[in-house]
Amino acid sequence: MTHSLFSLETVASMLLAGVLLVNLASPRPAQANDALPPETNGIDVPQAIITITEVKTPWYALRFLLKSGFEKSLPEYTAIKGLLQKNYAIHDGGKFGGFYFWETKAQAEAWFNAKWFERVEKIYGAPGKVSYFTVQDYRSFAQESDIKGNYWTVIHRSTAKSAQTLSNAQGLFRYHAVTDAQTGQRGTISLWRSKEEAERYFAQVNIPSNELTYTDTPLLINHLLTTTAQAKQ
């Protein structure tokens, strides 16, 4: 008689372990009724605004020069009232700028005033662009260990057939669910540890590549982390 190498109990245990591994490998989508992260205490998230800036990059400004300029600007930007986060950005197409998370629209408009546009055009020889996005939700899944890194910011401009399902995927720090204030199109703006991890996630959940924009993000400002750390002391 031939005997099985595994008992029924062993097979059942192996099947259960396989199910658990599949569940762990599949990121859990953030739910609409999940509690907001503690760092948002005191912030009226529905009143918050995301702005994306695009400024012409000088022909001579290689990536290391842009990074150096970003670092020199830190004292100026960290002092801006109402600025909660900034992802510095090196956009495709010869543009640089940032993704700004503001406590209110009024504070964003106070910074991006007529003088800002005049100064940008005078220095860079072309008008700057500022796009506004209203914020429906904010979620954080991990904390970046350093303000400097090879981070990537991803814009997902979703269609009706592929609504965003961002979750606590590997390499995801945070996301904002947003609506384009001009077009009404919904989507997300998310921060990732690396471009590879972001690409892997969006491929896994079958998001079309033409809905995604990947932006090199070498430097961060995150006042929300500072606020959280102070509250714990």
Mean pLDDT: 82
CATH topology (level 3) name: Alpha-Beta Plaits
**Order of adjacent strands in the largest pleated sheet:** 1-3-2-8-5-7-6-4
For the record, the CATH architecture stands as 2-Layer Sandwich
Strand content: 25-35%
Molecular structure report:
- The chain is built from six helices and eight strands; from the N terminus they run αβαββααββββαβα.
- With 233 residues, the protein is an alpha+beta fold.
- It has one domain (39-232): Alpha-Beta Plaits.
- Strands 1-3-2-8-5-7-6-4 form an eight-stranded antiparallel beta barrel, surrounded by five helices.
- Residues 1-33 and 227-233 have low confidence and may be disordered.
Topology at a glance:
Layout: H1 8-25, E1 49-56, H2 63-78, E2 83-91, E3 95-102, H3 105-111, H4 114-124, E4 129-140, E5 148-157, E6 172-180, E7 186-192, H5 195-204, E8 212-222, H6 223-232
Antiparallel strand pairs: 1-3, 1-4, 2-3, 2-8, 4-6, 5-7, 5-8, 6-7
Features:
alpha+beta, Alpha-Beta Plaits, 233 residues, 8-stranded antiparallel beta barrel, globular
What's this entry about, in short?
By secondary structure, this protein is α+β, with helices and mostly antiparallel strands.
